[in-house]
Amino acid sequence: MWLIFAILSAVFAAATSILAKIGIEGVDSNLATAIRTMVVLLMAWGMVFLTHSQGGISSITPKSWLFLILSGFATGASLLCSFYALKIGEVNKVVPIDKCSLVLTILFAASS
Hints:
This protein is mainly α. It has five helices and no strands. Helices cover 80% and strands 0% of the residues. The longest helix is centred in the C-terminal third of the chain and has 27 residues.
């Protein structure tokens, strides 16, 4: 089942770049990132409440909070950089460089 969701993730990520490049035309990249993030926020909290997962908030450990927050900062920084790069660059050049994150993830995981 994880493989299906991993493939869907790749399909949605591919669509994200193309949709963002079209949508960001004439829009400040920081504003575009904020709008996209609000949609993601609404979708994420919608799923939390739809699946009745909100009760698990109280059981999150301080370590998990720390790393989830750090992950959020990394995601935010990635989105801000990605949207700015898409704003000023060509999608067919920006996205392959952005996807080098796969190689970096493997290197980071191997060194930890």
